[in-house]
Design a protein that fits this description.
The complex is a heterodimer.
Chain A (H helix, E strand, L loop, with lengths): L13 E7 L2 E6 L5 E4 L2 E4 H4 L6 E4 L6 E5 L3 H7 L9 H10 L7 E5 L5 H10 L4 E6 L2 H13 L6 E5 L2 H4 L9 E4 L8 H7 L7 E4 L4 H13 L7 E9 L10 H4 L10 H10 L6
Parallel strand pairs in A: 7-8, 7-10, 8-9, 10-11
Antiparallel strand pairs in A: 1-2, 1-6, 3-4, 5-6
Helix pairs in contact in A: 2-4
Chain B lengths: L15 E5 L5 E5 L5 E3 L5 E3 L12 E3 L5 E3 L29 H13 L4 H10 L9 H15 L2 E5 L3 H11 L9 H11 L6 E6 L4 H9 L5 E6 L16 H5 L1 E5 L20 H26 L2 E7 L4 H8 L3 E11 L3 H12 L3 E15 L6 E2 L9 E7 L5
Parallel strand pairs in B: 8-9, 8-11, 9-10, 11-12
Antiparallel strand pairs in B: 1-2, 1-7, 3-4, 5-6, 5-7, 12-15, 13-14, 13-15
Classes of the chains: A alpha/beta, B alpha/beta.
């Protein structure tokens, strides 16, 4: 469900219950199951048969939410964090820079919380493959369970492995390698081994600290990688408000101006927060 | 069982390639068999030399039009020493070679009689100030001269990233100034996947259409609505798309948005000549294709709506949102914020959309060299804005 859409909600589906941009939850639709929060009690049985993107009303009719189809971008917003994750701007830029597309073979380490993994899987599906490696046993198990629940197993192979100690166990198969590790310079040689030899292979590493970047760049150069570039990438959100802009002549004329909030702003506030129960 | 890698990528005859020159200038060329590719002062070489080779290698151009692979070491061993620029005065007489002598060297270099390395060595040996420079400064000087004199180039694949980066640098107006990070975010937000049917408006000469086509595969489609009778997706020709890929692009003029197709009634004349048959077949194909496109549009429930338009985006959205499926994304790109503000207000005021967001990408490149890591001196101030929202399921 994360790598293609379906229109109608069915039992066993992964879905997203959406209240506000900051408040949404993943659920697995199951007969007899319920979702409860401060907005109300939402019964799964009432969801089955609805179209994705429908409004759902709580059982007592007082609260409401929206039932959305899961996507990697939504998953990045709601995935339970086991580690710090990558967000949309970096995920998007790296995907484009590494030329990911259907059919590509990608290696990733560490899997972490699987945020980027979901996006990669969607981008390379159905004929590509993601080999992802995580050295923390519990995280690896959790990610594996999630890939299975999200029907991504045919495209994603996760292995519990320390790639710095033992490499990837792959030779000449990857179009792209992505490293999100504390010491990516220690995995460069394994990455080189895993990249395909018959065409250009691309590598990207993600590091919070400039010192890590410097060491990685040196290692890449030593191993014969060319065209080494480094970027910082962000997305700035813009908030738009409608405000009244009265003519100063009103004040000079002695009129009292009411700087009240426009009715569009009022409606937005009203719709943003579904009714809370008393 | 390990996945089998996709077909190896080598430069195919007749394909488009981005040639990057040491001066950081670049041009898109067609590697047509039997032709010569000219890089101006950097020299010319036979296109045949590149066919069948891999991308990304550095080549030096030889006197006879052949090319030789050349490994450029990325990092010198420059380090901090006692030297500094305290005693260095900007004096044109520091260089002992005369203007005429340098011009003569350049001419000989073009003729292939002297290498760029030799020129640079002459310049540094004859420069009085050179010895006094810091190691970093010497390295920077040599690098600058290499960019000026080296007769080398790198052939790059026309990936979506490379093409977008190329035009953003050299002709941004052509692609409505969409920068690589912004383009990548449009793709990410729209949730484009292999079998997606994407409704698109691209007044940026096909940069967006090309990006969308590169992310779909068998079963997917891009439906481009365009001005005029024929689309203006000029960039498509650089992308080296396969015939299968190009088949996935369907186009429709705006004027045909609500068109009711008449059945195809053309009959052959009494004594048809080959031209008549061929012509009728062509028109029948065109008719069938347009019918199919209109059917796809009218069927609705499309998987994404992606817009980069010179028209008022609010008006475009009002027309095209009805074709978008529920829980699917609409994404609008514009190089300016103002047109998107009006659209934002409309989306927010409507009960049919969720999570209306306006964002702006920010991208900064850094030089990373031992002892010399810093942001690039000049960075792009504007790569455009993105408006996005989720469409709710239309009422039954």
């Amino acid at each position: 469900m994360f790598h293609e859409y379906k229109d109608v909600v069915g039992c066993g589906d992964q879905a997203v219950v959406y209240f506000t941009p900051e408040c949404m939850y993943p659920i697995t639709i199951a007969a007899g199951d319920e979702f409860n929060n401060k907005y109300g009690n939402f019964r799964h049985d009432s969801m089955v048969g609805l179209k994705y993107g429908s409004k759902i009303v709580s059982h007592d009719g007082r609260g409401f939410a929206f039932l959305l189809h899961p996507t990697p971008a939504l998953w990045t917003q709601i995935v339970p964090h086991r580690t710090q994750i990558l967000y949309l701007p970096d995920i998007s830029f790296i995907s484009l820079y590494l030329d990911l597309k259907p059919g590509k073979v990608v290696i990733e380490s560490g899997t972490g919380s699987g945020s980027f993994s979901h996006s990669i899987a969607r981008t390379i599906a159905p004929s590509g493959h993601l080999y992802t490696f995580e050295y923390h046993e519990h995280r690896a198990a959790t990610a594996q369970r999630e890939f299975r629940e999200h029907s991504l197993e045919s495209m994603v192979t996760i292995e519990h492995r320390d790639v710095v100690a033992s490499g990837f166990g792959k030779t000449g198969i990857a179009d792209a390698v992505f490293l999100d590790l504390p010491a990516p310079w220690d995995a460069v040689s394994a990455a080189k081994e895993a990249l395909r030899k018959d065409a250009m292979g691309r590598i990207c590493t993600f590091s919070p600290c400039i010192e890590q970047v410097q060491r990685t760049v040196l290692a890449l150069d030593e191993h014969g990688f060319s065209d080494i570039r480094m970027f910082e990438c962000l997305a700035k959100g813009h908030e738009i408000r409608e405000v009244p802009l009265p003519d100063i002549d009103e004040a000079i004329g002695g009129h009292k101006v009411n700087f009240r909030v426009s009715k569009y702003e009022k409606k937005r506030k009203r719709d943003a927060e579904p009714t809370t129960t008393a | 069982m390990d996945a089998v890698p996709a077909n190896p990528a080598a430069i195919a005859a007749g394909s488009s390639v981005i040639i990057r020159m040491p001066s950081s200038n670049a041009k898109i060329v067609c590697v047509k068999p039997g032709t010569t590719i000219s890089l101006g002062k950097f020299g010319s070489f036979r296109a045949d030399e590149l066919i069948g080779t891999a991308f990304g290698h550095t080549y030096e151009i030889e006197k006879d039009g052949s090319i030789r692979p050349h490994r450029q070491p990325a990092f010198d061993s420059a380090d901090i020493t006692e030297a500094n620029n305290r005693e260095i005065v900007d004096d044109p007489n520091a260089q002992k070679l005369t203007f005429e002598e340098i011009e003569a060297l350049k001419t000989r270099s073009l003729a292939g009689d002297v290498t760029a390395q030799e020129i640079i060595t002459s310049l540094t040996e004859n420069n009085e100030a050179f010895a006094k420079k810091t190691e970093f400064s010497k390295s920077k000087y040599i690098r600058r001269k290499e960019r000026k004199f080296m007769k080398s180039f790198v052939p790059l694949e026309t990936t979506v990233y490379n093409v977008c980066d190329h035009f953003f640098q050299f002709n941004p107006a052509k692609i409505r100034c969409i920068r690589t990070d912004t383009l990548s975010q449009v793709l990410g937000l729209a949730n484009v996947y292999a079998k997606a049917r994407v409704l698109a408006v691209d007044d940026g000469q096909g940069m967006l259409i090309s990006a969308l086509l590169s992310r779909i595969a068998d079963g997917g489609a891009v439906l481009g609505i365009h001005d005029g009778d024929v689309h203006n997706y000029d960039l498509l020709r650089h992308m080296n798309f396969s015939a299968d890929c190009k088949e996935r692009l369907r186009t429709l003029p705006w004027s045909k948005l609500h068109y009711q197709m008449e059945p195809f009634t053309e009959v052959l004349p009494e004594d048809p000549v080959e031209q008549d048959v061929v012509g009728r077949e062509r028109r029948l194909r065109g008719h069938t294709r347009m019918s199919g496109t209109i059917d796809m549009l009218n069927h609705g429930g499309l998987d994404a709506l992606v817009v980069s338009t010179n028209y008022n985006p609010t008006t475009v959205l009002k027309r095209l949102v009805p074709y978008l499926g529920g829980s699917r994304m609409l994404v609008v790109y514009d190089q300016y914020k103002e047109p998107l503000v009006e659209a934002y207000a409309w989306l927010r005021g409507s009960p049919d959309f969720l999570n209306v967001q306006l964002s702006e990408g920010w991208l900064r490149e850094y030089q990373v060299l031992p002892g010399r890591t810093h942001p690039q001196m000049s960075t792009s101030g504007g790569g455009g804005f993105i408006l996005s929202a989720i469409r709710l399921a239309p009422a039954a």
